[in-house]
Design a protein that fits this description.
Elements: E1 2-11, E2 20-25, H1 33-43, E3 48-52, E4 61-66, E5 71-72, H2 76-88, E6 99-103, E7 106-115, E8 118-124, E9 129-131, H3 139-144, E10 156-159, E11 163-168, H4 172-177, H5 182-192, E12 196-205, E13 208-216, E14 221-224, H6 228-240, E15 249-254, E16 262-269, E17 272-289
Parallel strand pairs: 2-3, 4-6, 11-12, 13-15
Antiparallel strand pairs: 1-2, 1-17, 3-4, 4-5, 6-7, 7-8, 8-17, 9-10, 10-11, 12-13, 13-14, 15-16, 16-17
């Protein structure tokens, strides 16, 4: 019988049942990859994180991240939610000095600040690079984006651990009202090896610059409520296009269409793109299962 401590955390929100939920197993040392994948399929959340002892000097802890179907080298909201869960459980001493997460994408620094009685956790995302996938029919992009008026930037594939198709939409209202073709998006992602398709639109409002939606049907997640890695890649894309200056930051709104209304802080710092926000623990207990 395995008994492992467990939290379910809503990330990129200041209230329960908002943002994006992540399951965090606080001690995954006794679990193998098959068991981790089984638990991730059972939680049926977009990601489940498993905390392990670090293997690299300078790391505060190590984490493995699973979707219901596969393991990811990095994901944003599980990284932010795991740090929140460890701090809350007293397993990350002196968080005010900063933490370092070890994951398959490398060592990633984490900053923690307290503001207005709330904890905000930010993580530097892996370096995002534009890719040009080959060996698939580019017409799949047009089919996946049918019904959306495109913005100034053409659809592009970017990778910061997960590979994302990024597509700018000309109108926020159109993006928010869009009914995606999940079969077409899944076909595009399977053919090009992408995790999902993230569409974004400028809002014209300073308090939330971008509206974002992310669809990952090929990985068992029709629409992800709030997506850290995709927003990190979007930040890198805007920076590369001269539309997000070094030292600037903005808020992205995602999840409103699912009733979860998350908010991600995206910062363009000298050392890379950081994403962060607040989190709320909604479940705190144990998982019990046979070996």
């Amino acid at each position: 019988m395995f008994i492992v401590p467990f939290k379910q955390v809503d990330v990129f929100t200041t209230h329960a049942f908002g943002g994006n939920p992540v399951a965090v197993v606080l001690d995954g040392e006794g679990l193998n990859a098959t068991q981790m994948q089984h638990i991730a399929a059972w939680t049926n959340l977009s990601e489940t994180a498993f905390v392990l002892n670090p293997t690299q000097a300078g790391a505060s802890y190590r984490v493995r991240i699973f979707t219901p179907k596969s393991e990811l080298p990095f994901a944003g909201h599980p990284s932010v939610g795991t740090a929140h869960a460890l701090i809350e459980a007293g397993l990350a001493p002196h968080p005010e000095r900063g933490l370092v997460q070890e994951c398959a994408a490398g060592l990633l620094p984490i900053s923690v600040r307290e503001a207005e009685g709330r904890r905000c956790v930010s993580i530097r995302t892996p370096v995002a690079r534009q890719e040009v996938p080959t060996g698939f029919d580019p017409a799949l992009i047009d089919v996946a984006l049918a019904g959306l008026t495109r913005g100034a930037l053409p659809p592009q594939s970017w990778n910061n651990g997960p590979r994302w198709w990024l597509a700018e939409v000309a109108n926020e209202a159109e993006l928010r009202a869009h009914a995606p073709d999940f079969e077409a998006i899944a076909a595009l992602c399977r053919a090009s090896g992408a995790t999902g398709l993230a569409a974004f639109a400028e809002t014209g409002r300073a308090q939330e610059r971008l509206a974002v939606r992310a669809w990952c049907p090929a990985d068992g997640i029709p629409e992800d409520p709030v997506t850290g890695s995709a927003n990190g890649s979007i930040g890198a894309l805007l920076h590369a296009q001269g539309r997000a200056a070094p030292g600037s930051s903005y808020i992205a709104s995602q999840g409103r269409e699912l009733g979860r209304d998350g908010r991600i802080e995206v910062g363009l710092r000298e050392d890379g793109v950081w994403i962060g926000g607040s989190s709320v623990t909604v479940i705190d207990g144990m998982i019990r299962f046979d070996e």
